[in-house]
Amino acid sequence: MRKSLEKYYRIDKLPHIWCPGCGHGIITGAVVRAIDNLKLDKDKICIVSGIGCSSRAPGYLNFNTLHTTHGRALAFATGIKLARPDLKVIVLTGDGDCTAIGGNHFIHACRRNIDITTVVFNNSIYGMTSGQYSPMTPLGAYATTAPYGNIDRNFDLCKLAQASGATYVARGTVYHVPQLIKIIEKALQHKGFSVVETLSICPTYFGRKNKLGSPVKMMEMLRDNSITVKAAEKMPREEMVNKIVIGEFFEENAPEYTEEYMKIIQRAQGEE
Amino acid sequence: MTMTSKPRLMQGNEACVEGAIAAGMRFYAGYPITPSTEIAEIAAERLPKVGGKFIQMEDEIASMGAVIGASLAGLKAMTATSGPGFSLKQENIGFACLTEVPCVVVDVQRGGPSTGQPTLPAQGDVMQARWGTHGDHPIITLSPSYVREVFDMTIRAFNLSEKYRVPCILLMDEVVGHLRERVELPDPASIKIINRKRPDLSKIEYYNPYQDYDGDGIPPMVNFGEGVPYHVTGLIHDITGFPSTKPEVTEYLISRLMRKINDNLDEIIDYEKFYTEDSETVVVSFGSTARSVIRAVKILRREGQKVGMLRLKTIWPFPHKAIQELPPTTKNIIVAEMNFGQLIEVVGASAKGRFNVIGLNKYNGELISPDEVIAKVREVNKNA
Amino acid sequence: MMEERVEIRLSGSGGQGLILAGIILAEAAILDGKNAVQSQSYGPEARGGASRAEVVISNDEIDYPKVTKPQVILALTNEALNKFKDNLAPDGIIIIDSSVKKADTPYKIVQLPIIETARDRIGRSMVANIVAVGVITALTKVVSREAVERAILKRVPKGTEELNKKALYAGYELVNQLT
Hints:
Chain B: Residues 18-246 form the Pyruvate flavodoxin/ferredoxin oxidoreductase pyrimidine binding domain. Chain B: Keywords: Oxidoreductase. Chain B: It comes from Thermosediminibacter litoriperuensis. Chain B: Pfam families: PFOR_II, POR_N. The structure holds three protein chains of three kinds. Chain A has ten helices and eight strands. By secondary structure, chain A is an alpha/beta fold. In chain A, helix 4 packs across helix 5 (157-164). Chain B is an alpha/beta fold. Chain B has two domains: 8-190, Thiamin diphosphate (ThDP)-binding fold, Pyr/PP domains (Rossmann fold, 3-Layer(aba) Sandwich), CATH 3.40.50; 269-383, Rossmann fold. Chain B is built from 13 helices and 16 strands. Chain C is of the alpha/beta class. Chain C has one domain (5-176): Pyruvate-ferredoxin Oxidoreductase, domain 3 (3-Layer(aba) Sandwich). In chain C, strand 4, helix 2 (78-84) and strand 5 (93-97) form a beta-alpha-beta unit. In chain C, helix 1 crosses helix 4, helix 1 crosses helix 5 (145-155) and helix 3 packs across helix 6. The model of chain C has no long low-confidence stretch (mean pLDDT 93). Chains in contact: A-B, B-C. The interface between A and B is large, with 42 and 44 residues. Strand 9 of chain B pairs antiparallel with strand 2 of chain C.
């Protein structure tokens, strides 16, 4: 780790609990590097998480950090942001935390366009409870609760976010780190609700259950299967199977929730 | 308190919001549910006028989460709900208990279980207010009987919650929530407000968010965004706020959480005695039911019956002392409650066989009437 | 007919403004320097369905806040009359709308065209509740005319004050024509 980045970590809490080969440390590192590149005021950052492997990340980060209940990170984060709009609020969540138990909070946070950056650590599995399928587990994949293959169709999180009203939507992977850092930087600078879905790898459960080989093999799969948004536009449908489309999907300027609420305060007080 | 406001007709749910704002509430998150909805509606109108924030969340779970987030960020925060919504809030109420985040949760009780009877009164959430969330945890629960008392008790709920860093439940019911009544409100300057204890950071080298610096079991609190980064987790944690599975850390934390309440029972517990000095039969009640009991006691006393009332304003922690201190003349305790018999279990445990403990229970969506209390007292006195 | 405690039950269907009528009577009692509480009972419907508002007025502290043996009942529907007609204080009176079919009851019934007056004379059937408030005030004197007028002006939507005052006076007149 670069010495200059140490201030962002709670070094005494390391080593982390993640398995060897897990991609989550890379995402956490990318978040820290994006914060450092933007020179954000450390004391004004709140990092909020739910429950799961991803949600242990805030414990290692030296900010105001809040490890909440399963699926509810965005609800807590909404309270913090509305109470203190001057704080930079970042939610770190997983595919199960965000899209299953927290799915309703996710679409409503998107809809409100509240100025929160959400980074979804998508490893396609429930890791903390040892390998059950999530709403992001691909069709046909194996999990401890899908011993004959998964028949649940998975979400396209970026489409879900955009349709729900998020105003910055992008996807990266733990293989494409420089791009991931850039995307998170843009998300942090965006005024409104920003979503960065990041494909992570879980060699211990998803990898083993689906015979994907070593962590290096899984990283190579991310490399080989990823295509850019531009390339995807030109690619015939049949070739798109199993492809991971990465890059920025959507960006727009729209009224931000806490700013709109400040106008409500002015309106209410003007009436008096 | 000095009265300054003109007498006015005010609804219980409105008095709750007025009390909350007087106590310093500047954040409300809620979800519509009968019979508590007026609290959200009035909060939506009143809060921005005082620079506060209101948000209607997507559900009750989210409302409770947002309230905890806002409180951590430094605002006094409240949510209000009824039966089904109270059930949904429970997991996050437990989070606030363990992480010691002050907040007020109003439950305007309606008939249950399940959807039950949305527009009708009940007092069936007595035990849920105590043990609705899982695991051992501290909690304070207050129950008002009058509209004016809703105002005062909402302030007290905030004060206790801030002082002890514990969620405080205001256990109302449909009758007192929807009742409109003549009230005179106190001069705001005369209202005692308690704010959360803050650390003197100039004297602390490294702030541990869960260290009992003062030996009173209540760690001083820094709000998020005040330049002192720290970690808050719903996992069992040590004084630094980080997770621990050590038995001694676990035991210390749980016992400290309980101790900060149990060491202060005299300050937290409040009740009203009415004609108990020489009574042979005492009716224990709370909330709107107590108003029927007061009327019944007045009528029975005119007849010369030795009957009194103990009205519990604090339900949890339970006022065992109030039961145990009843005069030697007392033989019978009637517990009047709009449920199948919840508080009676605790009263019975408190009585330890010293009194006959008899239930007066009604669970048909109607308030217990004075006539029913009178009939029960007569029946008990005849059998005694 | 003022006793220590006066109980009033306003009954009919949802959307008839009975709760507002109850609030106005309670507010007027407070303006008269008395104690008052108002409570309500209603079904899940915003419009239609059975609805009732109850008011207790007293010179004393009001402990039990509900109505058990009302001195005054207003019934604007057949259903309401049949439900409540047999349970009043000994000297109680029942005020019914002319659209309501009279029923057997040991209590005095006063029948007046409350809804018709609102619809035809005032031109807005939605002010039937205020006509009823006028009838109750003139007939029972539970609240003063001055207080009830002030209470109406406090509680009705802005811009409808004159309309509601007219409705109140029309209620008084209905009672005047009785004698």
